[in-house]
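no rush on this but wanted to send it before i forget. what follows is a protein written twice so to speak, once as letters and once as structure tokens for the fold. mainly i need to know what kind of three dimensional shape the backbone takes. thanks a lot i owe you, the record is right below.
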Amino acid sequence: NIKSKYGLDKIGDDCAVLTKDSTNDLLMTSDMLIEDIDFRLDWTTPEFLGHKALAVSLSDIAAMGGIPVWSMLSIGVPKDLWETDFIDRFYSGWFALANLHGVQLVGGDVSRSTDKLVIDSTVGGDVAHGKAIKRSTAKAGDAIFVTGKLGGAAGGLELLENGFRYSFSKREKYNDLLLKQVKPQPQLSTGKLLRVGHIASSMIDLSDGLSSDLHHLCRQSETGAKIEADAVPIHPDLSHFYVADDCLAMAVNGGEDFELLFTVGEKNISLLDSLDVTRIGVMTANIDTIELTDDIKTIILPPNGYRHF
């Protein structure tokens, strides 16, 4: 692949980590969202899309335990959108999230595209020198945790594909699932706490899905993992629309929850008592093999999350 062919040793984590000075390192991440691949305009609103364009990059900063500081945003806009209020509304959603986390827009570009909207988001942040939480530092025996509930974004995506749309006028059972897909919340405060408290031994954000992202972490750390199916925290609203097996599949394989998946040494587990996190398994010495177990059987879990190609 490109990384090994060209010796790109800065690539492999959620962000590139570059030495800034004796006190801090610079975190940098870049994400691209393409219409009809990563989103559909009839599923979302310009405000939601502006929010998500920044949120996906902020989630990468969170996964390293960092603090976001600045962003550069480039957009390729087709003519039919340019002639509406879409761009103003998009930036309204973007800045609402940016202001919440103290992120300053410092540059970027706006250009015309032929027929699809293209968004390129770059975010820079700070982390204490040498303290960024990486994917490559888990050890066999470490406990595996996740923040929040899983599968909501995957469930929301399927509902969107079946014609459901977010209701601004009344409280609907499906609204929270749709929001998990169109307006995800990056876990910046938890990521920072896991770093400052020296709690997490490794971490990654759940963008591709638990099965795929755990494989990434295992591969980088040269470990395996064992997951307890009954311990996986499933988004409670999924049960209104899907049978139990489908809910578990969405929680295990569904992408874009943008929660945090992290490992903790046994001596640090008590430090998690105040956080909304769930222990789901343990890292093993069985390199790059993930076992999913319940009361009846154990299966080998392949990386069944989102694939770009």
User: Anything to note?
Assistant: The chain has a mean pLDDT of 94.
